[in-house]
Write a structure and sequence with these properties.
Structural class: mainly beta
Number of helices: 4
Largest sheet: 18 strands, mixed
Length: 292
């Protein structure tokens, strides 16, 4: 086997799948190019992107997220649960309560274990406080508009009403009558690249089932439609709670599975609970560059 191969682990959180690489001892060269090469579904390993597990000077570990198009993301809610499982399963730590550095700040993660097998099956993530202020999301807004909550926006496909919120990543939440009929693949990319977002955005199409339950689909920045988005689920729950559509504890159903979101009124933090699954381990030899 070529000495230039890279060891990886394929993992997913309710279908939101990434390729994980241990970079705690040695850096992975050209991660943006590697994400582009490894992510295609039919001609490579196939994933929504690439996540590097790195050492951190300010937390237990650091994660870097690269979307399928090579762009670097600030945060990934499903990915961070898998990072916590990855470091525990690979004996990089024996902690079950971890601090993980991201470009959106340090997040704390508590592992969930199976009571019979002691296997890590999921995690609870403290996602921090949601951000509604346009200047901090960031989103360009008309003069005097500090927050966009159920706010009308003109697009090439007509006017849509959305809520702009950041949960580490920038999100646009749109309420629809049917997620099956939602214009995910037409309006999604248009809104992702809308001039109002200086750094592009994730776009959620959500439907209220009850005050305790939401269903949604997501068009992710840099990856297109994915089976799930952890920060997107948080964004939908937050938008629903902020507008009186839902209560503080919300079950969010996505194509890949279900996440439980709780927006704590005492500290204003959002907590996400969901599974983390290892699919397989493997090795890969990059083709875009030659390393010695």
């Amino acid at each position: 086997m070529s000495k230039n191969y890279i060891r990886f682990t394929k993992m997913h959180g309710i279908g939101n799948d990434y390729i994980y690489i241990d970079c705690t001892e040695a850096a992975t060269p050209s991660p943006k190019e590697l994400a582009i090469e490894m992510s295609p579904r039919h001609t490579s390993i196939g994933a929504d992107g690439l996540i590097l597990v790195c050492q951190s000077d300010i937390a237990d570990f650091k994660m870097r997220i690269f979307n399928a198009d090579g762009s670097e993301a600030l945060m990934c809610g499903n990915g961070i649960r898998c990072v916590a499982k990855f470091v525990y399963d690979h004996q990089l730590t024996d902690k079950t309560n971890l601090s993980i550095e991201t470009l959106a700040g340090i997040k704390t993660v508590s592992l969930i274990k199976d009571g019979t097998t002691d296997e890590v099956t999921g995690a609870v993530v403290d996602m921090g406080e949601p951000v509604f202020e346009c200047a901090d999301i960031p989103v360009y807004s008309p003069a005097g508009v500090k927050k966009m909550i159920d706010y009308p926006v003109q697009t090439e496909q007509g006017e849509v009403v959305l809520t702009a919120v950041s949960v580490g990543n920038t999100h646009a939440v749109i309420w629809v009558d049917s997620i099956e009929q939602a214009p995910v693949h037409t309006l999604g990319p248009k809104l992702e690249h809308h001039a109002m977002w200086p750094n592009r955005a994730n776009v959620e199409f959500a439907h209220i089932i009850s005050p305790e339950k939401i269903e949604m689909r997501v068009w992710e920045r840099g990856s297109g439609e994915t089976m799930a988005c952890g920060t997107g689920a948080c964004a939908c729950a937050i938008a629903a709670i902020a507008t009186g559509r839902c209560q503080r504890k919300v079950e969010v159903v996505l194509p890949g599975g279900t996440l439980n979101i709780y927006w704590n009124p005492d500290n204003n933090h959002v907590y996400m609970t969901g599974p983390a699954v290892t699919v397989f381990d493997g090795t890969y030899t990059p083709h875009f560059t030659k390393t010695d």
